[in-house]
Amino acid sequence: MLHLHDDKYKELEEIANNVRISIIESLIEAGSGHTAGPLDMTDIFVLLYFHVMKHDPKNPDWKERDRLILSCGHICPVLYATMAHAGYFPVPELKTLRKFGSRLQGHPHREWLPGLETSSGPLGSGLSQAVGMALADRMDNDRHSGKFFYCIMSDGELDCGQNWEAIMLAGREKIHNLIAIIDRNNIQIDGFTEDIMPLAPLRKKFEAFNWDVIEADGHSMPDMNDAIGQAQAVFSAPSVIIAHTIPAKGFEWAERHFEWHGDPPGKGPEDVYKKDKQGAAALDALRSLGGRIVGEHE
Amino acid sequence: MNIPLNPKLFDKDVEQRPIREGYGEGLLAAGDADPRVVALCADLVNSTKTGAFAKKYPDRFVEMGIGEQSMASVASGLAAMGKIPFFTSYAMFSPGRNWEQIRTTICYNDRNCKIIGSHAGISVGPDGGTHQAVEDMAITRVIPRMTVIAPCDAIEAKKATIEAAKHVGPVYIRLAREKTPVITTEETPFAIGKSQILFSPKEGVEIKAGIIACGSVVYNALLAAHELEAEGIGVKVLNLATVKPLDKDGILAFVNETRTLVTVEEHQVAGGMGSAVAEFLASVQPAPIEFLGVQDMFGQSGEPNELVEHFGMGVSSIKNAVGRASGRIKRI
Question: ipTM, 2 decimals?
């Protein structure tokens, strides 16, 4: 199992908050882009890049690295911000998000930025690519590979039929070093997932396709850490971690609103703050850590 | 330059083989030569001729079931790890059904995948219009980075497959289902991006037009040229097996000699090989072109030859088009 000591846990929490601030700053600068998903996946990305994954920011093409395949490319602000804080590129570059000529394309393009495994955006095709990568790895290393393939998916994209083709194939092939992590935030652009196209019972669906299923609190680093450790230990099936998350985690007044799926602060719904106040309010909430660990940073 | 061709080309008993069979042989040869070559198929192992490879290299073959969309992206993932995946289905489903996956996860991603569309064209025959892919070259050649090849016979298909494995980048190869005459020989040269003049009239016969063709209907173009030669009408035939990238030098040299063109393809005339030729010539050296192919219609059931005749790609249609094309020279 993966161990997560208290000191490391505290360090990761701080990094996560800094990453959230970077996400918001980059979105405000860009004037467009998605808010809810990047914020709710920040804890998981930080855990992966700063604790779990085998990777080297100075040698992004290192062959033995674990692979992180981002299927839901629209949450790339969290990928970019985490990679910058991990040392792949300078943090100030985050303010070029979505600008002409930027390496930080509106949806990730692997040829523009070293360290991206795939170009993505159109939903539903990341898992197939992760399955292909893991199959190639098994052709070369039988089942003795030291690599893990982490596919980050949104819950909404499970509407896409292609995912279920890939889920069937991975189940048949018992790809043990494939770990899908689903951002179960219950929202998509047009509303709540269970209203748009119900996914429940999601656990049973994956179990029916012969996957190992683990559910975890996507905002609890220890819980997610344990879940990933369990998934790594499974040797007879691919694993999926259904990570329960709160959309727009980090600023309470936007949390759980599906309306915040695709807009940046400054362009979101005005039920609490007018557009011109949203950016400052978001950053204030994060800089005070949203009241979560009051005291340490005052 | 004389290109070696089947000596029995114009005989009644000319050998006939399905073009897709050449793919199966080529895949096996490519797999023997390079362990990175792997194959995927969507529940059509035998009819796409992937079976020999799957039998010899079961660990390098992935049966996808009827999942063409996932197949394209799984291939992309395999290529990401250094494999050279060939994936096959009927052209209607791949690159038809999975076009966006090919566009984004293969071409935009710059993955070294080979897309093999069997049963392309209306000569699929009795299966009918649902299964007759006549749009596949249009939708593949429009994607940046894609190479598009339509071999004219089984031998050329074998060579195209072997060359596709060596070529770094996405390649689409379209294959016909039915047996068609063997035009080339093992000695006929093949290179991606190179066209070849397969027929020139005897000395003394004045050249009235040129025919540019690709795929199985190259044979009809040759028959038409052969018959016209006997009637004293000189016609040259260019096999444009690689539809993208275009052999611009070859086409330009050809049209300089023939002045006017007929294009023949088992495909919609919109967006296909003829369109590619016209796009190029219009910008450098406009020439009259008669476009033979499917004229904005869907296919239907019938015997292959019957359908080729019906949709205007038969020998008599080509001969008539040569007449029209040569008649247009004076008017420009």
Answer: 0.94
